[in-house]
Amino acid sequence: MLVVGCVAGLVACGQGEGSATALDAATRALPASTQPGTASATPTASSAEPTPTGPPAFTSSVSKVTRDLLRYSWRPGCPVPLSDLRLVKLTYWGFDDRAHTGELVVRDTVTDDVQTIFKRLYAQRYPIYRMRLVDVYKGDDFDSIDADNTSAFNCRPATGSSSWSKHAYGEAIDINPRENPYRHADGTVEHENAREFARRPLDRPGVVNAGDRVVRTFAAFGWEWGGSWAGTKDFQHFSKGGG
After folding, report:
1. What percent helix, strand, coil does the chain show, rounded to 5?
2. Residue ranges making up the domain that contains 167
3. Is residue 11 domain-resident?
4. Does residue 9 fall inside a structural domain?
5. Domain count, the chain
6. Would you call 241 helix, strand, or coil by DSSP?
7. Residue 50's pLDDT band (boundaries 50, 70, 90)?
8. Does residue 107 fall inside a structural domain?
């Protein structure tokens, strides 16, 4: 009992016979960090500050579409049946410097292209403002563009034409339409919020310029850029095989 009492209160230990010897032994038995006159032990690795994990890895998935999913953007008479369309969910880098999950509907023949292209754009940290199905806007292309929404399939004619757009085949994607507007040959744009982005080249986040990494990434898979058209420029538009 003498040893226990001394360890519990070293200063107050008694001075009876054998007490000094017992105290020395008890002190030597204590951990080094608690011995008198010993500096605190170096913190272990478990007590160090946590290491940031960084942004999540890119992920993507492909699934079949339903009529309810495309209640506004598809209808009987469209150039491709529902059975030829696929929903692609994928990770994209946002203007807020964070990862987000977006959705695109494309033709089944280009799903591999789309997944690989957007994986590369994510690795490049190319920012995308929003990526939702055009059906969120009830199939209204103007409203989707006004919301700076990146989208793909929409069963509609090409702008200023009676022929089907490449979007009606699920083989075209419009990226950041505010930053990359459709510009008429006279230099005007339809969307007021896009007027400051009508000229090229332009060094702004999300903007696509001739020959830049976005254009090269799409071109590696046979997708052509509408910004290379003569006269009218569709800076947002990428389509498989052109058109």
Report:
1. 30, 20, 50
2. 60-240
3. no
4. no
5. 1
6. coil
7. low
8. yes
